[in-house]
Design a protein that fits this description.
Helices cover 46% and strands 12% of the residues. With 580 residues, it is of the alpha/beta class. Helix 3 crosses helix 4 and helix 9 packs across helix 15. This is Class I poly(R)-hydroxyalkanoic acid synthase. It is found in: Cytoplasm.
Length: 580
Amino acid sequence: MGDLGSRQRETAERLQQLSLRLMSALSRRKAPNPGIEAPGPDLYAKTAAAWWEQMMQNPARAVGHTMGFWEGSIRAWTGAMNPGPDDAEAKPDKRFTDGEWDSNPWLNYLKRQYKVTSGAMRAAVEDLDTLPDKEKRRLRYFSDQIANLMAPNNFLGSNPEALRRAMETDGESLIQGLENLVTDLEANDGELLVKLVDDSAFSVGENIATAPGQVVLRTKMMELIQYAPATEQVHAVPIVIFPPWINKFYVLDLKPQNSLIRWLVDQGYTVFVASWVNPGPDMADTGMEDYIEHGFLAGIDAAKKITKQKKVNAVGYCIAGTTLSLTLSLLKQRGDRSVNSATLFTALTDFSDQGEFTPFLQDDFIDGIEVEVNRSGLLPARVMSRTMSFLRSNDLVYGPAIRSYMLGETPPAFDLLYWNGDSTNLPGRMTMQYLRGLCQRNEFAKGAFELMGHSLSVRDIDVPLMAVVAQTDHIAAWKDCYRGVQAMGSGAKTFVVSESGHIAGIVNPPSKKKYGHYINDDLRGDAEAWLAEASFHEGSWWPRWDAWLTERSGEMVPARKPRQSDLGPAPGSYVKVKAT
């Protein structure tokens, strides 16, 4: 009895301490920004108007929706009386894989009724024929968020695995889950961002981002790293890689076996990589022109001088691919031929179709971001992280929350998730230039993006180009990337569609023998026609890129070792600065 009483007192003390920490963390949360937290009232008004218009024009359809819902609900109830697996599904829902969802009548009913209700919500949205397509996309996104949130597995009382774990551990899993919840709130000033990874397992420069090299240039925007050679001879023309500054460059150097940087060095290239600064409020007035002037142009110029070459082969990934395209237009108008060839990874240059980002690129959301950047001088990393996470909310929000807060599990030690969480702030001016000028007004595709005294146009791009996109990319949809490449100038263009998504489609080493890719030299038709006529090739596209680069990299010369300097070794200092 004494031991039991002691454990109860310890548990009570832990809960009291956690409650105090919880209240303290929540008190630090800033007032929410309505424009970012939720859709504006305009969407609700348009939806209501479209619904009533449809009711008046086609009342039978509305009645059909209602009847369908009740019929489905009756089937859910009767089916739960004899619980068992649902009818065969094309793709089983991994949220309901626990056997209790089939064997327990109550849980079986909750699962069935949830599927009926969420299906009815989606059907109602799809049948709003009078709602403009853009507004329908937004409504579809927000209704899906509601459906995902209300799934029964997200609640402790109807999550069989969490209840079973609590019983098995005498409630310890729930106390540990509360500890995890409080810790996440404390780490984000009262904002709830679910921790996805055990970040204590990784250290930049020690067990990730370990390719040897030297920082050879530091500007206010980036550190330029030159990597040590791995071969006695190298191609004359160097490669300069510009990763996205929304995240950090070491996605290209997570570990030796999947490091694109190491692989390029092993193929005999002199490789330079930009490591972008993590902006603070003092960089509020930093714009796209600063990234170009003190990042792209400075990096290209430094690589030319160090290697004593007149040209470089430039690479841009995601937003840096978009900005490399802007840079190429600027260089063309200046008569500067410093870029021998360009490679774009999942880079958008035509934003006429906003895809899955449609909900976030309308005025109410952008106006909310403008309020935020005017208040703080930047777009905080956690706002961007949260936005990206809710595009895949079941996998990146609710699933991790269940494991952490209900099951009391420690997040996994996964290098890619660590990188994903080590994101960066965005300067206020640059954020608004990108969102208003490129995403909303699509000025670059229209030849009217005003920057640095020039009207930049996608049609100016005429250097030899390889564009690599990812087939299931939800950030830069491959068909949208294709449309932008089609609009580019008369230079030779190679277009490659890699299997998988925004990261795995690019970081796809040949040794993994995992994802294949599609090739088609005919870019005259639309994206569907291109893919229909494309040839599929097993394995990574990296060797294909190597062959393409070799033709544009000149003769072999003695390997170049990075010069030693006071700027320090790779991975540099900028990459170690955390977003605040």
